[in-house]
Structures are given as C-alpha cells and as structure tokens.
Amino acid sequence: MTLVNEPDPATGLPVGKLVNTWPASRPGEAKLMGRFGHVEKLEERHAAALWEAVRGHDALWVYMNYGPFADEAAFTAWVRERAALEDPYSYVVVDGDSDRAVGIAALMEIRPVMRVIEVGHIVYSPALQRTPLGTEAQFLLARYAFESLGYRRYEWKCNALNAASRRAAERYGFTFEGIFRQHQIIRGRNRDTAWFSILDSEWPARKRAFERWLSADNFTAEGKQKQSLAALRGAPR
Fold this sequence. Notes:
Elements: E1 6-7, E2 14-15, E3 32-33, E4 37-41, H1 47-54, H2 72-83, E5 89-95, E6 101-111, E7 116-124, H3 132-148, E8 153-159, H4 163-171, E9 175-186, E10 189-199, H5 203-214, H6 229-233
Parallel strand pairs: 7-8
Antiparallel strand pairs: 1-2, 3-4, 4-5, 5-6, 6-7, 8-10, 9-10
C-alpha cells in the first residue's frame, strides 16, 4: 500500500494530505428506496415479521453476541431495545413484494468528526440471503453513508472465522485491511476480527458496479444474474 502524503511546510517531513474537517451527519430515520425493496429505521412494529423470518434459524446468531431467542416475546423485547439505540442505529430491510421486514443491518461505531462509520449487526433471514434485495440493501446503506451523511470511510468488521461475512464484504467491494488478533471476547470465546473498508474516493466506482448489477437488464426473465458484481467491478474471480 502506498501512503499518500505531502511535505510538512515547516519541517519537510511527510504528513497526511489536508482534508476538509467538517463533521459528517449522524444516521437518521431515512427511508431508502430501491427497486427490490427498501430500508427504513427499525421499530418495534417490525418484530413480528422479523420473528417469522428468523425463528428456527439459530445459525444466524452464531457470530453475534446476542440470540438466538427463546420465543417471540424475548425477540420483541430485544427489537424494542435495539430500536431505541443511537449507536448502533438499526435499520430493517423490507421486501418490496410482501412489504414485510426480512432482515436487519445497522450503522454503528459512528464517528462524525473523523467521518468514519461501520455497517454491522447484519442479520439476513433465509428469505433475504442470496437475493437481489440483500445486495441492494447494502448498496442503499453505503450510498446513504457516503452521499447523504458525508462519511469518508465506510467499514465492515467481522469474526475472522466467519467465512460467509468475509466473502460478502469482498463481493460488495470492501478492501481487506488485516486481522486484529485477540480483538474481543464474545460468548466467552476469543474473537480475531477481520477489517474491511471502502473509502469515499473508491465509492464512485463501487456505486457504478452496484447500479449496473441491480439494473433490470442484468437479470434474466427467471431472475438470474447475467454478470456478477465482481465482474462488473473488474475484480478478479
């Protein structure tokens, strides 16, 4: 990696380039509309549909520090608590055909002064996994963070052993930056954390690839993709 720098005016030593120091905005109650569905703020009213989508799928919670939940009441109480938090600020993914919530994602580790934010706490029910809406939801959140809120660094972090999450990050165009060893203790077990990011300078190209992948002419009549997101981004297979 080449570090971008310029000479310090007083000493000539290499320092980082000057950037605008205005802070980014915090996430809010935006409704992010897409072609396959939309993303909106998590509220307690979403709990029933989400419970129907996730119950019985205990593998969804293996890498989380919460869940699975014993019953709908416990899950609803958790949703109520999450919906009240400012960081992480949780959103639901709503299917356009059924108008039902089928997944959750959050904007978190919110640092407006540094203009850094992370997408995480991602819970995709089986109804959302491997669907165009699942990809579209990530596009909508990233676009919101960069273009509406003004962040310059968009992060993705996951358990280094979570192969599915690492594949998803790379598919969406995040750059792998390394592993923080013994970063956390989750459920009494060690967690090494894999770090990924997209920078604001990289976003225009990532955005074009997302838009081309999500366009109607990239899908067959049966709903199969014609070109992969990685291929449209020019990334190696």
